[in-house]
Structure formats: C-alpha cells, structure tokens
Amino acid sequence: MVTPLLLADRLAHVRAQIDTAAHAAARDPAEITLVAVSKFHPATSVQEAIQAGQRVFGENRVQEAAAKFPALRATHPDIRLHLIGGLQTNKARDAVRLADMIESLDRPALSDALAKAADMEGRMPDLLIEVNTGDEPQKFGVPREQADAFIRASRARFGDRLKGLMCIPPAEQNPVPHFQLLRSMAQVHGLSVLSMGMSADYPQAIAQGATLVRVGTAIFGPRPATA
Ligand SMILES: *Cc1c(COP(=O)(O)O)cnc(C)c1O
C-alpha cells in the first residue's frame, strides 16, 4: 500500500491496523496502547500527533525528552511519556522526574539508581523490565538466563510499580519466537504489560499478546539522518 503523506493519516492508518490485528486475534483493541515514538522528530511533530488525538509518546534519550516534553506537557497535561531507550544510571533522576513509564529497567545498578532517584523526587514512574530475548551482546536488556531472578528481585523491590516486560528482537530474525518468549515470561510472573512490536512488526506482536506497541517510523516518517 501507499504510505499516507500526512501525519494524521499515518496515525489513523496505524490505529486501524491495530484494530484489525486485535480483532483477528479475538482481542479487544482497547487493551492495546499505541506508544508513538517521537525520537529525533521535532516537538512540532509531536504537537501534530497530539492534535490528531495521540496521547502516549516514547523517547529513547533522556536529554531529548527533557528538551521536548515539559513544554508540551504544560499545554497538554494529559499526555504520557515512556522512556524506551537504554538508561545510564547518571540519568536516572531526570528519567524519574520526566517519565510516566520507564520501559528499559535491565540491571541491578539501574534499580538502585531509580530507587534512590524516586526517594529524592518523591515519585516513581511505572516500570517495565527489558529482556534481551536474542541474548545479543551489544544490546540493552537483561540476558535471558538472568531474567527470572531479576524479575523476582524487581518485583520485591518495586512492588506494583513493576508492570511488565519489554523486548526488541534481533533485527534480522523472525520476531515471533521472541514475542512468544516474552509473553511466557510475563505469564510465569503474573505481569500484565507486554511492550513489543515496532513499525515493521506490531501486527504480529498484537497477535502474540502485546499490550503496548512502540511505533515510530510508521507515524512520524523516517527519522532525520542524525539518528
Ligand atoms: C526507535 C524505537 C522504536 C520505534 O521504531 P520504528 O521502527 O521507527 O517503529 C521502538 N522501540 C524502541 C526501543 C526504539 O528505540
């Protein structure tokens, strides 16, 4: 199909695809939250998406989120920000201040930093644990074999703030087995949120139980070359 030219049309198309995928899987589309990934795109594009009814956004760098979102929130207090990128411990305090959800908890040192930041800020975002389902050495995410122990420890530490799991399957592989692995891990631990699926594969992720899909390019178009 031809990609629509206007952001509002691309967004409507993605929403329609989500509905179709949900119905095909006998799921209620209302169970699925679209996270519009606005990284590298200007605040004006985020504003366009807000005008078109989008409310949940994803950014992968704390500094960029800090530059864009406080002003957007001032005019649109109901938008939600998810931080979806690998997080350095020295950014934990800004992350806790800015985010409604951090999707990339992946190691004990980051848990420590987030807990300390939460004490200082007097708030704690919702959390997802990122699992490196492909065990790729260069990637963020807790390695598969450490995931169970890390999920248990995080549950004990953060209680209900820990909502679920996130994964980014290896780019060159069929994502479906990765989605299935993430779903089964979440089931074992009684976690309800499953963040999986990006522009290339969100319908497949929905078929496998995704409750959050993180879609950038299909909404905002290609990212500027500085990416
Ligand atoms: C950039 C990014 C996305 C969105 O990717 P698209 O292919 O542009 O949809 C999703 N998740 C994470 C973690 C990202 O960094």
UniProtKB/TrEMBL annotation:
Coiled coil: none annotated. GO terms for molecular function: pyridoxal phosphate binding. Residues 11-224 form the Alanine racemase N-terminal domain. The keyword Hydrolase does not apply. The modification N6-(pyridoxal phosphate)lysine is found at residue 39. InterPro entries: Ala_racemase_N (IPR001608), PLP-binding_barrel (IPR029066), PyrdxlP_homeostasis (IPR011078). Belongs to the pyridoxal phosphate-binding protein YggS/PROSC family. PANTHER family: PROLINE SYNTHETASE CO-TRANSCRIBED BACTERIAL HOMOLOG PROTEIN, PYRIDOXAL PHOSPHATE HOMEOSTASIS PROTEIN. This is Pyridoxal phosphate homeostasis protein. It comes from Acetobacter cibinongensis.
